[in-house]
Amino acid sequence: MKGNSGRELQDLGRDTDNIIYDRGTVRVVALACVIILLAVVVTGSISYFITRNAVVEKLKTRDLVFIIESISAKIDGRIDRAKETSLILAKDPALIQWVAGAETDERLGEYAKTKIDQIARSYDYANSFVVSAVTNHYWAEGSKLMQVMSPADPDAKWFYDALNAGKAVDLNIDYNSGRQDTFVFLNALVGDVSQPIAVTGVGLSLKEIAGEFQRYKFGEKSNLWLVDSRGKIHLSDNLEHNGRYLQDFVPKDVVSQVIGDKAGASSATRVIEYKNVQGETVDLAYQPTKSTDWKVVFQIPRSESIALLGNIKFNTAVTGLITLTLMIFVFFIVSHRIADPLKRALLLTKEMEKQVSERTRELAQKNQEIVDSIDYAKRLQESILATPAELGDVFADYFVLWRPRDIVGGDFYWVKRIDAATSFIALADCTGHGVPGAFMTMAVNTLLNHIVDENYTEPAAILAELNRRVKETLHRNDRGQMTDDGLDIGICRLDQRKRQLSFAGAKICLYINSESQVTVLKGGSKSIGYRRSARNMEFSSQSWQIKSGDKFYLTTDGYVDQNGGEKDYPLGRKRLLQIISGQSREAMSLQGKAFEAALREYMGTEAQRDDITVVGFSLR
Amino acid sequence: MQPLYIDKTKSTPGIHFDPQDAKLRIEGQSYPENAFKFYEPVFAWLDKYLAKVEREVVLEIYFHLPYINTSSSKCMMMLLEKLEDAYAAGTKVVVRWYYDLENDTALECAEEFKEDLTLPFEINPVGEEG
Fold first, then answer.
1. Inter-chain contact A610–B74, Cβ cutoff 8 Å?
2. Residue range A71-115, pLDDT digits in tens
3. Domain A385-477+484-618 falls under CATH 3.60.40.10
4. Local structure of A300: helix, strand or coil
C-alpha cells in the first residue's frame, strides 16, 4: 500500500489539474463572458442611442441655431458698422462744405479726399466714395475721380435712385460676376435728406466676411451659404459655390421653403430635416439677416454631426473588450486561487471516501468470510449437541435454552444413553466464549464420550477422570503461563429402574423442583482442567430419589451473571430460584419460554455478557 | 517505583496501585475478551512491588468487583495467590473485599476465593452505590 501512495498522489495531482479546466468551469466562464458581453453591448447601444438623440437634439436646437445666429449677427454687425461709417461721412461738415462749394476749396478738398481714403483703408472697406449731386463727380478712395455721373448711364442709375429715395442711408447690393464678388454699398445722403447735395458711403466686399464663413466649416460636407431672395449664393464657406444657386445643392421643395419664407428678420432660426439624393439625412437651418432680405443657410449631413459618436462606439467596444479580458483573467485567478484548493479538498475527500468505502468493503468481505467460517463451525458445534431425538428419548419432557453470546460458544450440553435404564446428561461451560470456547467444547465432548465409553459410570469418577484428561490435553506443552483453560460442568446419571439420579458438579449445580420445593445439589467449588486444579481432584456424587413430577435444571453461569435490572447487577441466584419455583406446574417445554422471557426482561437493552445455557428436564 | 493506574471501562476494572501508601485498589466489572492480556501488566507490577515491599508495611488490597467472568476470576485467583505467597513469606497483607448487598453473585465469588486462601480476607457489604 505504501509503495503505491506516491503514484496515487501523482494521479491525484493530474486529476486536479484536469479538473480546473473541466467542462463545468469552462462553461461557467463562457456563460459569464457572454452575459458580460451582452450587458456591455446592451448598455453601449442604449447609451449610444441616448447620446445620439441628445446630440441631434442639441444640433437642431442649439448648434445650428448658434451657427446661423452668429453668422447673421456678424453680417448684420458688419453692415451696421458700414452704415454708421457712411452716416459719419455724410455728416462731416468739411465734406459737406467742400461738396457744397462745388469742390473748389482746395484745402477742404484735400481734407475730404484724405478722409475718404482713410476710412476705406483704416476700417477695411473695399471702397469708399462721395458722389456730388452738384458736380456729378464720383470721388473714390485714393483721391481718384472715378467718373462723372450722368443720368443716361445705366451704371449711374443707383446714384439717382439713392438721391431720390429720401433715405438717410440705404443699402445697395452689386454682384460683380467678373470678380465673382458681391459688394454691399451703404449710400448715405449728404445734406438735407429731401434735397441732398451728394451721396457718400462705403462699400464692403462679402469676401471679407468669407473668412468668417471658413471658421464655421463644421464638417467635410457642411455648407454655410448667404443666399439672396432668388436663391443665388452670394457667399459660401466653399468659394466654388459663390454665384451658384441654392437649388444646385438642395432639393427644390426645401429651396422653395427657404426662399418662400417671408417671415421677418426677427423670426427665429428654422431647422428643416430632409433626405438628399443619396438618401442621407441632412439638417438644414436658415434665418433671414436683419439688414438685408438675404438668408443665412447652413446645412450638414446628419452622419457628420454625429461623427463624434463613432468615438463613443469605438470607446464602448474597447471598454467591453477590456472588461471581458479582465473578467476572464479574474475567472482564471478565481479558479486557480479559490476554486482549485476547494476542488483539491473535495477531490481528496472523495478519494478518501473512496478508500474508506473500499476498506470498509474489504473489511465487510473479510468479516463475512469469518462469519461464514464461524457459521460453518456452528454447524459442527451443533453436531456435538444432543439432538431433539436423543433428548426426547431420555426425558419425559424437556427444554433447552442454548444462547451462545457469539455464533458459537463455550457452552454445550451432552446426553448419552447407556442402556434401557441408564443415561447421562451433562452441561458444561468452557472458559471463554466464541471460537476459543467452541474449540474447548469439541475437545471436552470427545473426552467425555471416551470416558463414558471406557465404562466410567459414577458421575464423580467421570469428573475426576475428565479433570485429569483435560489437564493432560490442554497443558501438554506448558511453556506460556498465560494459557489456563478449563471448564465448569454438572453431570447426572439417570437410573430409570431404581428411580435414582446421581449428580456430580464442578461449579455447576443441579436445581430440583420437587413438590414445589426447590433443592440445590451443589457441585464442587473448583473448576475442571485448570492449571491450579489439582490433578487428583476428588469429586463426590450426590443421589436423589426421583419422585413423579420432579423437575431438574442445569444452568451455566451465563444466566445468573447476565447484567441488567435497575442497578445493572447480575441476575443472580436468588432470581433464578424464584424463576424455578414460579414454574412448578408448567410443562417443561413451556418453561423454556419463561426462562427466556425472564432473561430478556431482566437484561433489557444490555448486551449478552456470556454464553447462556439452561437445560430443564423431567423424567418418565 | 511508578504507581500503576488503569482507567475503568465498561468491561475492565479500574486499577489503582500506589506504592506510596501501600494500598492497592481494583474496582469495576471485569469481563474482557482476553482477561490474561488485561491482567498481565497488573501481575508484572505486583511481582515487582512485592519483591521490594518492606516487611513492616501492612499492604491493604481493596476489591470491589460486581461481576467478573470466568477467565477474569482465574486471573483474580492468580493475583490473590501472589499475595498469598507474599503473606506466607512474611509480608503483612490484608485483603478487603467489598460487595453490594443485593449482589449475591459477588458475595459467592468472594467466598469462593476466601475458601482457598489463608491470608486475612475481609468480606464487607457496602450500601447504596458503595
1. no
2. 888 888 888 888 888 988 888 888 888 988 888 888 888 888 888
3. yes
4. strand
